[in-house]
Amino acid sequence: MQASIGFGIGMLAAPVVALFDPSLIPGTLIMSATVVTFLVVVRERASLDLRGTGWALVGRVPGTVAGALLLLWLPDRGLALLLGAVVLGGVISASVGWAPIPRRRNLAVAGAASGLLGTATSIGGPPMALVLQGSEGARLRGNMSAFFLVGSLMSLVALGATGAIHREMVDASLLLIVPTVIGYVASLFVNRFLDPPRLRRASIAMSSAGAVLLIAQQLV
To answer: Which of 44, 63, 69, 176 is the most exposed place for a label (fewest CB within 10 A)?
Structure first.
């Protein structure tokens, strides 16, 4: 999903990972996102057009710091509920068709929101997807991936500085390198034959189901 439409690894995987081992959120998925976004940036480098992405990265800096601090204050149950709420919020925003104009202020605000949510929950895609949805295909994937590559590295530095990265996260991310690369390779075929809107709808449905199950697990 991340390599096909430019975002989604967090929305799709985070609720599932949190159901089994919440301690792996957000570090493990941010590390996995770094791998796949690097591969997409290399693949789509000819289509990169980074005008405006700089403003999003400016906003990402304070958002990343805020996300790392938020993670320090949240208990595991609070993080799980926040994660589920962020996924459902992303689903709603993706479904209503709201399309902010990608001007400097909106890009900076989206970057800040992406930094906060991405660092705290590993789900930073929806804010940037809303602002950049006017782009399509390789340009969208490349620009989104370039932003998330730099943003993920920022988040990892911030999480490391606050002590939120532990050995289990690193070990799990190393185990996930192979499936992450397999997903990237699969995207090469998906991009040719599968209708992107259909892939997005299916991914949103799966993300929603995972978020609902996660919230229900915390409330029962």
So the answer is: 69
